[in-house]
Amino acid sequence: MKKPALFSVFLLVALIGGISISGCKGEDKIDSSIISSGTQVSQEVQEENDNMDKKSYAGLEDVFKDTKLITPSGKYMMIVFGANGCPYCEMLKKDIKNNPDLKSYIQKYFTAYYVNLSYSKIHTFKVGTKDDPKEVKISTAQLGQMYDVRPTPTIVFADATGKTILEFPGYMPKNQFLAMLEFIEEAAWKGAKTPKDTNRLLREFILKKSNS
Question: I need a surface site. Which of 22, 38, 140, 161 has the fewest CB within 10 A?
Fold first, then answer.
């Protein structure tokens, strides 16, 4: 899978006055002591493990869906990769909780998931089209590796077939974050032939929204 020039997004968008982008270092995001070793466990324990990550988005269950099944469900898909002890992840969740416009926009246009890399869980990852469906069982760690997640939060946007549109590493203040959501929903990214084009269009879109 080709990866967008992620850090060019950092550089391009950071040039916009007043926008700060931050993230937690990847090497601090996983607590190996609480990741399953793969040994067999009872169904009760497995269910407890499957639900443990839900505490990560407590109060936002109306925004983030259970990650046991990750699929677009006919909308744009947004996957937020976070971790325990990540202050920028908490800031992002707080922004969503405290801003009804931001929350309702996500609810209306996105199928959203919060994947906590500090926990181990098996996800059914289902994408593709009706004529060409793709489904795979994948662990939390493998899912993070698939998207090459480094800082947290990292936000992945995909279309209704699961095809990646943009991977954004780091935290962005609420107004700029809403602009990025609008950039995806309004399909302002279409026409870009390369990741560099997508990054340029994103920068221009956020600049326009900031000045309007």
Answer: 38
Cα 160 vs. chain centroid, distance in angstroms? 15
Residue 212's pLDDT is 72
DSSP assignment, residue 64? E
Residue 10 Cα distances to 54, 74, 153, 178, angstroms: 29, 29, 13, 17
Q: How far apart are CA 206 and CA 124, in angstroms?
A: 34
* Distance between CA atoms of residues 64 and 80, nearest Å: 9
Three-class DSSP labels, 162-188:
CCEEEEEECECCHHHHHHHHHHHHCCC
User: Rounded to an integer, what distance in angstroms lies between the CA atom of residue 132 and that of residue 54?
Assistant: 31
CA distance 40 to 149: 28
d(CA 113, CA 131): 25
Which tokens is 194 given? Answer: 């390369």
Nearest to 75 by CA among 105, 103, 53: 105
Helix (H) or strand (E) holding 124: strand 122-128
